[in-house]
Specification:
The chain is of the alpha+beta class and 202 residues long. The chain has one domain: Hotdog Thioesterase (Thiol Ester Dehydrase, Chain A), CATH 3.10.129.10. It is 30% helix and 31% strand. It has 5 helices and 8 strands, in the order H-H-H-H-E-E-E-E-H-E-E-E-E. It has a 6-stranded antiparallel β-sheet.
């Protein structure tokens, strides 16, 4: 049975990037994204909100840093690691070959008719499968291809289970599969090829 290894999930540089205050900011932004996606405010409210967002954008411009110093996507103790593009995902089980998590596609990820957008589903798979391809202690890997099969509607605002496993490794190639489940029913599946970079390309 696999177990959740927090130290492995956090990685070697996690302590330098963990930032509870930024995590709170990222979660607030996700809430805002959901509210904007699901609302129809009058013109006056739109203009007032846009003005406030423009002010916040200008305030944060003073703190822009290079990619190596950013903390977005590196908050491993928070849902979606502080990456506001990703659906809120909470990892429960993780080892070097398997990861299992809970995910909720919120209103921001709506395609139509209560179903999550297919692009958001592919994004989730690319990220989670990529976590297995980029375990600490190994060279960085990039997605070579990702095939996503949609078996059934993936609903929004419902907690689902998402799993990924490494099936085989051939030299620098990692073949990783994933699936999203609602109870015991498979809603979507993915298969990907990830390639570990040579040192001079990392």
């Amino acid at each position: 049975m696999t177990t959740f290894d927090l130290n492995l999930w956090l990685g070697r540089e996690a302590s330098a990037h963990e930032d509870p205050a930024f995590g709170r900011l990222a979660e607030a932004l996700q809430c805002l994204q959901n509210r904007v996606a699901g609302s129809r405010p009058p013109a006056e409210a739109c203009i007032a909100a846009a003005h406030e967002l423009e002010r916040l954008t200008a305030d944060l411009a003073a703190y822009v840093v290079p990619e190596a110093a950013q903390v977005a996507g590196r908050q491993f103790t928070r849902p979606a690691r502080g990456q506001t593009l990703l659906p809120p995902i909470q990892v429960d089980t993780y080892d070097e070959k398997y990861v299992e998590a809970r995910v909720t596609f919120t209103r921001f990820y709506l395609g139509s008719n209560g179903a999550a957008h297919g692009g958001a589903i592919a994004l989730l798979f690319d990220d989670l499968l990529g976590q297995l391809a980029n375990i600490p202690g190994q060279p960085r890997a990039r997605t070579a291809y990702l095939r996503t099969d949609f078996r059934s509607i993936v609903p929004i605002d419902r907690e689902l289970v998402v799993m990924a496993r490494t099936n085989r490794v051939e030299g620098r190639k990692l073949f990783i599969d994933g699936e999203i489940l609602d109870g015991g029913r498979v809603l979507s599946e993915a298969s990907g090829l990830f390639v570990r970079l040579q040192e001079h390309h990392a």
